[in-house]
Amino acid sequence: MLDYAIRVGYDEADGGAFDRAFPDGAVSREKGWWQQSECLRTLMHFAVHSGKPDMKRRYEQTLTLVQEEFVDAANGGWYPLPKSVCARQSCPDEQPEPYHMTGMHREALDL
Question: What is the pLDDT of residues 22-62, one digit of tens each?
Fold first, then answer.
């Protein structure tokens, strides 16, 4: 399942997980906050436990994407959509629900 998710649902050019990857290979290429949080969680887990060096590279690439596009450095927290998207359209002015970030941080602490 991980191999399929990486092959179809991971953005090798910019890092991060796309919104959805379907069994027929179709992909919804938008990116949201919770997908990136779960992507980081999965990549850090497999970077430590699988011995695959490409997982560490993808983790670092996705972390850069998250820091540049999703983390609100001025006010704290995360943006629900990438900053580059919110610059072109109206985005919700609310802090995303922390469930996915909590799981990501818990995974980091466990590792």
Answer: 889 899 999 999 999 999 999 999 999 998 889 999 999 99
Stated pTM of the model: 0.91
Q: Where are the beta strands (DSSP E) in 5-91?
A: 20-21, 27-28
Question: What counts of helices (H) and strands (E) characterise the chain?
Answer: 5, 2
Q: How far is CA 73 from CA 15, 44, 111, in A?
A: 20, 22, 25
CA triplet 60, 95, 43: central angle to 5 degrees?
20
Strand 20-21, strand 27-28: pairing: antiparallel
Residue 94, Cβ density class (10 Å: 0-12 exposed, 13-18 middle, ≥19 buried) = exposed
Residue 21 dihedral angles phi and psi, to the nearest 5°: -125, 125
Cβ neighbours around 82 below 10 Å, total: 22
Neighbouring C-beta atoms of residue 91, cutoff 10 Å: 14
C-alpha distances in Å from residue 38, one per residue of 24, 74, 78, 91, 106: 22, 23, 14, 21, 12
